[in-house]
Amino acid sequence: MPKEPSEKTVQRMRVFVEKFCEKSGSFTHPDTEVTEAVILGLAKNVDELGRPLCPCRFYPDKKEETTHRT
C-alpha cells in the first residue's frame, strides 16, 4: 500500500496550489474532494520524487520525468 505524504508536504502543496491559482488566474475544482485529491497527489510525488509532478497525468517513468521537467 502506498505511503501517505507528510502533513508538512501537504501544507506546502496547499500553498503551492493557492499561489499557482493566483499567478495563473485559474481556479481549483469546485468539488473540494477533487482539489484535495490533487493536492495529496502532488504531495505524494514531492515526498517520493522530490518534484510536484501532476497526479492527473500518466508518466511512463516518473523518476525520468523529474530530470527534465521545469
Protein traits:
mainly alpha, 3 helices, 70 residues, Ferredoxin Thioredoxin Reductase, single chain, globular
Structural description of this entry:
This protein is mainly alpha-helical and 70 residues long. It has a single domain (7-65), classed as Ferredoxin thioredoxin reductase catalytic beta subunit (Ferredoxin Thioredoxin Reductase). The protein contains 3 helices and no strands. α1 (7-24) crosses α2.
Look at the helices and sheets and give the structural class. mainly alpha
- Categorize the overall geometry: globular
Q: What fold name stands as the CATH topology?
A: Ferredoxin Thioredoxin Reductase
Number of helices: 3
CATH class: Alpha Beta
- Main β-sheet description: none
CATH-derived architecture: Alpha-Beta Complex
Terminal residue distance:
29 Å
